[in-house]
Structure prediction request, 316 residues.
Amino acid sequence: MPNDPAGEASQLLGDVHALRNRARADRHAFRFPLLYFGTFTLATAPLYVLNYALFLPGGWIDLVWLAGLIIGAVLTIWWYRRHGDRSGIQTSARKSFLVWTGAGAAPLVWILVVPVFFFLWPFFVRGTFGLLAIALGLIALARAERSRRLWIITGLYTAAAIPAVVYNMENQYYRLFHLFGVSAEDMPYSLIQGSPVLLPALILLIGGLTTRRTV
Amino acid sequence: MTHPTGQLNDTVHQRHRLGILTIASEASRVEFTYLCEALELTRGNLNRHLAVLAEAGLVTLEKGYDGTRPKTWIVITKPGRTALAAEMDALEQLIRRHRGD
Prediction:
């Protein structure tokens, strides 16, 4: 750097930042997991209606969530490998895979250790812990992707998912229906059981649909 | 105190090698052809730069196949990440010093 070392350094840093931004944009592939988990979450809504209407024993919904999370984790790994092969630059989704499968199994593990970890009951009694498992995996994915957009979608999703896991969100929908003049007798209690998963699902689907399509 | 130019690593400081490490640090692995296109380098030139970086232990090369087509993937090592971070620090220090911050 004989003449203007600072100028050359500045130009070099500018080039490096441009390369980094290009590489980051090229390797992003998070549209697929957002769409998959959005669709899967939406598909679980009728199960809660069925569960309520038929007085089914608890726990089976946790198994459905676990299956959906494992399939989603495997498909995400496959999708990122495929994207890496096609674009020439690959992001590792391994941590998300581990989080989705590990957290998906948490409600089943909790049943085995209830005497010790009873205090965790608010997370598991409603059968919606899968929403939080998705959020944890998305956080790991947002870290790997280093994407502001994915962080925002994950933040919004998590903010919608946490109340659906630890609180009876149906109560809010009863209030909403009541505000629109629906009386207690006409309240669609059965249908509303599926409502807690709707907002988180919608956030993922909108996030996925508005994200740039990748190869 | 050492002048920031003294902290620049000759292996890393070369513009194209810095580019290779920057792109590799962004991904879990990057393919040879992607680097050729992003850095506008010929295959021969890129091979030479990769040999220097691999010799210094800053990247590793993984040979594989996509169907029947051979592919070379480049993975940055831990020392590679450290060297890149040190280079970026040195460049930023150099700019700050000349601006008189």
